[in-house]
Structure formats: structure tokens, C-alpha cells
Structure prediction request, 477 residues.
Amino acid sequence: MGALGVLGSFGLTGCAPSGDTAAGGSGAGEGTSESYDAVIIGAGGAGLSAAIAAYDKGLTNIVILEKMAVNGGNTNFSSSGMNASETKFQKEQGIEDSNDLFAQETLDGGHNTGDPELVQFMCDNSAGAIDWLDSLGIKLDNITLTGGMSVKRCHRPTDGSAVGLTLVPGLVAAAEERGIPTKMSCEAKELVKDGDAVTGVKVDLDGKDTTINAKAVILATGGLGANAEMVTKYRPDLEGYVTTNQPGATGDGYTMAEDAGAELVQMEQIQIHPTVEQETSTLIAEGVRGGGAILVNSEGNRFFDEMSTRDKVSAAELEQPGGFAWCVFDQQVYDANTAIAKYEKSGLVQKGGSVAELAEAIEVDAAALQATIDAYNAITTDGAADEFGRTEGCIAFAEGAMYAIKVAPGIHHEMGGVKINEKCEALDASGNPIAGLYAAGEVTGGIHGDNRIGGNAVCDIIVFGKNVGEVVADALA
Ligand code: ADP
Prediction:
């Protein structure tokens, strides 16, 4: 999808050794080796942040490995925004928020199964991460709501567009400016250990087995949503679900970390997202609902609080006839979310000049749909209590053009993963750090618990990605 804007813009050299490389080994077809201070596996949001932050702290002999021919990973598809509290942009816009409220709502959203210390760390460092991105030219000052938050704290690009499409090119440009080498189409296969310490990684480099030696290995390999076998290993009930994940999200990091002695936690916590267009696996951004859209079933009726958490909305959708819903919205919502024009270009959006015309287009009873919209409007205009308990993002539908996208749940995010501490050190089953091994981003686990709030993944990958880069730079200084 939108990743196309950055394809090939970074690390074009395939797997050719970088200028920083101390290459050794033998000729073509045989194993070679290279050495760096730190190797970062994965060029998504977490890996790019880690590399930039490490570099800016003086750790310049580093390399990023990316198994795909394109960088950005699932971060390219991040649609909602980045949650953050006590930010300068919230203050400028008169939004009152606190790190503690953010932490509380994150823990509540995960039914108190998340890691309170890591959550607090993430929230306390979120405003700093927003400032850091701003300093890199990535301004996220358009703030909205996603399900499970009581205060506007989901930070988006100024024009309200999908955050990934600003974030990835911005991080790529920052890495490029610093001359940080990236080896594209370069797949990490196995971590190398010397005794208990991780000392490098074996990679497939242009068809050759190569060992990258490093004093620190940072795993930033993202999730497993594109590996159906691994998904069903942890969650047999998710067999047959579509996935929103890019093809490189095959869970390699979990296998490599586990083989190196790291503990994996909460791997069964695979989040499904309630608004995925099923033919193309396109994720319909949560900001669409946050901006006022409703979900109706095939009978034209609402059935749940659209702003509730993803697990509950998904479960409610699956109980509807056919197990799907229509995400219905008006021109105001369309105009406030630039992603919708892209969905329309891809043929995902049904349209009508009125409620009746839309109803005809989506084969839903027109009177029922009109009654549903009238009742929803009454919450927003008369202050009537919503029968489904929605209190957030209630904005009355205006007359005129109406839109709908057919959605159902899809596999979205692995919330479990490598157990880490606040320093992003990978921990073994006894809670001891594995020397030389660090992790950040989706590959880590236990932060969000059994349900992640929309917009918290970007906060997680930027806060912990930046953090791990700084921690490793300090450790090797
Ligand atoms: P995060 O949000 O945690 O940064 P992403 O999905 O955005 O995660 O990025 C993870 C990146 O790691 C993806 O670009 C993916 O292709 C890459 N990756 C996954 N496994 C490997 C591997 N074995 N070797 C190199 N890169 C990998």
C-alpha cells in the first residue's frame, strides 16, 4: 500500500558490505564475516528509531539488516497515529492529559494483564518521543481519539493522514542523512552466542551464509501475522483469518530469541482488528470511527459501542449475521481522514448521495439505516444516552453524501513476545538479561497485555526503539 512512496529510498545496496564493514572470510559462495559495534535486525519503526538514536549518541559503527526489499515493515501501515500524553501539541490545543491517565487507560484497555512498569515507562517517555520525532521533521500535531481513551492523545500528521506514511519516510531520511548503512533483502537466520552472550547473527546475504559479529544485537523484527502456521501454533482459533501484516512479518525474531535463551511471554495474545476490509486485507483506520463513523450490521442496525476496545468490537462483529459490519460515515468524516480517499481509490468505499442511496448501494434496509442514523444523531444533538454506551467521538451525521466500507476482523498485532526490562534487555526465564541481546517494538511482549489500544503500537515502537538505541550506545561508550 502506501509503502510505495519510500521503496528503495534507503539502503539500496542490497547486501553489499558497508563502508564501516570489517569484512573478512572467503570468496563467492562461501561464508564471510563482518563486524560492527551494534547490529539492528529489522528496518521498521523500532529498528530505524534505534539506529538513529544510537548514532546520535555516538555509536556510529552500526548496521541495519532488513529481510525485505522494502523498509518500514508493518509500520508502513500504521494508520491511527501515535498515542502520547502531556505533549506540547496537546498543551497548545488545550487538551488536558497526564502520563498517569494514559498509563491507567492502557492498563485498563489490556484488562490489567499488561506490564505496569513498561507501560509507565512508555507513557512517561511519550511526550519526549513526540518532541524527538518533531526534531527529525516528523510533526504529529493533529490529535484525535481511538477506542479506549477518554482524552484526545492520538497524534497524527498535520493533515490527518495515516501516520506510517509520514513516519517511515521521515525515519528513513534521518537514517540516510546520518549515513547509517542498511542491508536490504538480508535475512537474519540465527543468533550467534559465545557462552551465554550473544555476539552476532548469521544471515543469508546474497545467497551466502554470512556472520555479522557485533557487541550488541538489537532485535526489531516485528510480529508474526504473515506466518499462518505460527499464528495457529499460538492461537488455533485464528485459522483462516486474513492478516493486515506485510509478508515479512513471519515471527523470525521470536524463534531466534527463543533459541538464544530468551523468554517469550503472552504469545497467545494476538490482536485481531475489527475494521479490516477482507478482499484486500486493508485496515480501516480507527480514526474513522474516532471521527464519528458508526458500525452497522447487514440489517442496518448498530450493535455495539464503536469506540470500545478492539477485542470487544471484533467479538461483537463476529456475532452479527455473516460476521461482518459496514463502517458508515458522512462527508465530514471523509474530509477529516485523508486515508479514506485512498480506500476509495482502491475501490473499497460504497457511496450514496443520501442515506437512502447508500442503503441501496450496500443492500441494507433504507428505513432501518435512517432510523439508526437518527438515533445516533440524537446522542450528539439532544444528549440522549446511547443504548450501546458510546460516549466518545459522537459527531452527528450531516445531510448529503454517505459512505460505507465493509469490514470484519483480521489478524493485526502480536502483543506477546520477547520479555524485556526498561533497558530493552532481552530476559531469560529467570529474569536475567542475556548479554548482548536487546529487543524493541512488536517483537517484544507483555507491554499491552491482552488488548492493545489503537495508537499505542506506534508509541511503543518509537519510545522503546529510541530507548534501546540510547541504552546500547551508553553501554558500549
Ligand atoms: P516494528 O513496528 O516493531 O518496528 P515492523 O513490522 O514495522 O515492526 O518492522 C519489522 C521489520 O523487521 C520488517 O521490515 C521486517 O521485514 C523485518 N524483519 C523481520 N524478520 C527479519 C529477519 N529475519 N531479518 C531481517 N529483517 C527482518
